[in-house]
Every structure is written in structure tokens, then in C-alpha cells.
Amino acid sequence: MSSADQYAKDIDPRSGQYTDTLDHQQQQAQQQAQQLTQGSPTKDHTDALSEEEAGPKAHDAHSIRDEDSDVEPEQLKRALGRRHLVMLAIGGIIGPGLLVGSGNALASAGPVGALIAFAVTGLIVYFVMQALGEMATLFPIRGSFIEYSGQWLDPAAGFVVGWVYWETWVSILANEYNAVAIVIQYWEPARAVTTGGWIMIFWSIFIAFSLLGVLAYAEAEFVLASIKVIGLIVFFILSIVINVGGTGNLGYIGFRYFRDPGPFAGTGIDALNGIAKILVVSATLYAGTESTALAAAEAANPRKAVPTAIRSVFIRILFLYLGTIFFIGLNVPWDNEQLVSASSKSAASPLTIALQRGGINAAAHVINALIIISVISAGNSSLYLASRTLQSLGATGRAPRLFAYTTKSGKVPIFALVFTNLVALISLLSISGGAAKIFSYIISISGVSTFVIWAAICACHVRFRSAWVRQGNKVEDLPFKAFLYPYGTWFALVLNIVLAFFQGYTTFLNPVKAVDIVVAYIVLPVSVILYFGWKLWHKTKIPTLDEIDLDSGRRNLKHLDEIERLDREDEEKSRLERGNQGWSKRLRGYAGRILT
Prior knowledge:
Helix content is 67%, strand content 0%. By secondary structure, it is mainly α. The chain folds into 2 domains: 1-61 and 556-596, no CATH class; 62-555, Amino acid/polyamine transporter I, CATH 1.20.1740.10. Helix 9 crosses helix 10. It is globular, with a radius of gyration of 25 Å.
């Protein structure tokens, strides 16, 4: 009997609970812990963790065999480290939305108004990530907050959250295909290929690379995301040089544009409307920070990688986002006509405008290349997240079971990957005039989904922490504790719910268009219909705090403590051995580790 057969499990759509027995799980955990504690401390304990996953092997497998099918899904390959988790999240977030959309933020709210909007949204994201970090560290399961919603809120909630999240990333992926096909034609030689042709070229590249496996996929994202981060840091440095008059004919700028045309775009109610509008835009640009937890199922050591990655992602994203808004606000007045009337994406980018005003005339080409890299990187992350979400939905019976299948060699969810990429070909609608409008609506619909997902994460955290205490566990035993709980989580939950309804308020201002109102709010009624449809069909119920399952997918803390203790002993031994080596041997050792 294969490991997938022996430890196969399913989820009851009524209860949302795993159907394997707790007694069997506890026996497996005890046997594995005993084997580890009796082993030699020089063993590679990190490998042991990635193979046996510190507890019930049922939760490591995360694979479900459909007895009525010849398709046997395999577990996802645990090959990601902290740097992969960090860059996968950053790669999905820093896209053309920041490089180009930040100009719209500046024009709509002004430099101080845009900073306020991005800072407030960043605070919401911080508490969402804290909540998610606490749960994902203890439960680094495939599907992450989708499974938390299904088990701790209501099985019907897991169904809704899963499909809303998949729809969000498919829409973003389609938009990236459309964006890269347009941006690359900024250079005249690229215009020999049509927009549809470029979409299909990048479509083929994305899916081919994805089939290489998660590690190659993550390494590519690491490189692309690193280029974007370095590019933004270089922009920050050049912005300082331009601001102090080191280049160009503007002389010393300082905070000139904060005074004239002013810190806000307009005064009174117009200034407030501008901030409110960008508050919603900034939330859309922050979407993807939660992806760190979704990738936790493929982390080699989730307990160490996830908390560190979550902290790193938030700090870097906040620094890059606020830094970008701050520096373009310093060097570009918010009433600059190019921000809203430029003929191309690269020309409309506030980064391009800032550099050109500073006398760096080749800026458009450089920024265009950076936009293309950012689009490819964001598309890479979008395809990864969407396919893994669909794979999780298939494995838990919320989608056809075929999507749960993964290849035996690279552990790639092949059917989920291909289907997701096929749906993303809605980007071809943008080629014709009438269909282009439909395509823009599809992209706009995904905006409110961010608030729905973040609100669900916060609600899961409230339920999890309440059940954790109710069932006799101690908060001190949690490997990662959310900062300022419960105030931070409740703050984020309430604001996300308010913003989900508030985000489309501008559609009610003159002139009122019914289609714009529908696009802004359709996700909310559709989510309600999906929720009650699944609930009535499967007769699900909301579990009480005593009924909430806190065992399935949970890490065995004592087991992990033992592994990490032995890891520290190995690291200390290696450090002492390196200390006894000569400098030449030590340098060769460092080089070997970097290259491998």
C-alpha cells in the first residue's frame, strides 16, 4: 500500500473535518518522535522534518485519493525556504500596479494623501499578517486560510473563500498577460508581433516554466523579484540625487511640491474623496501579502520559515510602497499632466516622469524594462497561487478531484495549472474593442475580493484563538503569537468589512452608471449565493468552539522542539569546525554553500 493510500484522508463537506482518526494520528506522532529522539544528533534533521513533518503523516501528505478514480494526487513537494516564501509574495505584489498605478494615487490624493492611504492600508495588512502568521506556523497545511475557513468558520465559508481567491489570482494573471503584451510593444521591433501573439508567447513561457517544479519556479521568482527590489532601491537613490539638485536643471527641490500645488489633491471634501479612493486602490496593490501562508505547505521547515517570511514580507513591502510614494511625491507635482494623459504605460509611470524631469532621458527605456520584469514576476506568482489554490479545492472536494493530482517527479498540480492558465486567456478579450470593456469589468470585479479574503482571515483568527483557549490550551504554547491580539485582529476585521462595502461608493456619484455599480459590488452577492448554496446542499453547520478541530494539520510542537534542538547542536558543531579551519578552506566552504 502506498503512503498516499495509507494516509489518505478526506473532508466531510458537512462538518469540514478530516475523516481520518485521531488515535491513528497520535500513534504515528509518538512513533516518529521516538525515532527522532533516539537518532544521532548529526543527522540532517531539516530533511527529517520535510519528510515526516513532525506529527501525523496524514497532515504531511495533504493528498486525497479518490477511490472511484484512477488519478492519485500526490503531496506537494516541500522544497521552499524562507527566501523563496518572501520573494514569491513580493513578486506577486510589486507589479505594474505600483510602477504605474502609483501615479494615479499621486494625482488623485496628492503626496501626503497618498501616503496616508497607503500607511492606513499597511496597518490593516500588518494585523492580517500577524493573524495569519499565528495560524500558519502551527497549521502549515495546503490551502492555508481556505482550510481554516472551512474548519473553523463553516465548511461553506471555505468553499466561498477558496473560489473567490482563485478568481482573484486568475483575473490578475489575465491582466498581467495583457499588460506585458502592451508594454513590450513600446519598442518598435516588438510591434512586428501582434498583441495576441505576445500573449500566447508569454502564456507558453509561463506554463513551461511552471512544469519544471516548484523549486525551479521559486528560483526564477527569486531572481525576478530581486531585480525589481534592486530597481526600486536604485530609483530611491536617484530620487535623492535629483531632489537635492545633483542632476537636471530643477535645482534644489526639497519639499517644494508639498507646498505648491500642495499636500492633497484638492481641499475639503475633495481631499477626503481622493484619500478614500486611493485607500481602496492601495488595498488592491497590497493584495498578495497573504500568499506567504499559502506557500507554507511547500516550505521545508514551516515553523522557522513562515514567521520570518511574514515579518520580512510586511517590512519590505511597506518600505518599498511607502518609499515609492514618498519619492515620487517629492519630485513630481500631483497636477503633472503626464500622470493622467501619457500615451503609454512607461511614459505614464511616475518613476519615468521623475527621472526625466531630473535629466535622465533614457529613463523611459529603463522603466519599461523594469515594468516588463515586474509583469513577468507578478504573473509567475499569480499562476503559482491560483494553481495551488485550485489544487487545494480539488483535494478537499470543493472542485473536481482531477485538479488535486500532482506529477510524481516535480509534484506539480498539472491539471490545476493548465486549467488556470487556460482560463487566464480571457486576456485575449482585450484585443477587440467591445470585448475589451468586458475584460476591464472582469479585472475590476476582483478588487473587492481582497477585502473578503482579509476579513475571512481575521474571522478565522478570532475563532481559532477562542477555540484554542476553550479547549484547554495555553496561549504561551503557540510558536508564533499575533501582536496586540484581540485588538489588532478586530481592528482589521471591522475595517475590511467596512471597505468591502465602501470601496464602490464613487459609483453612486454623478454620473451614476448601473453597470459600474454592478461591477463594484457583484462579488458580495455572489459570495452570499455561493455560501448558502453550498450550505443548503451539504447541510453544513457552524461548529461550536468545542467542536472546532485543532488537531488536523497541526504541528507536533514537542517533535519540532526536539528537531530544532538537534539542529542547533549541528549548527554549533559546524561553527566550531569552521573555526578550526584555515581562511582558504573556510572561504571555499562559504563559496560552495552559496553556489549550491
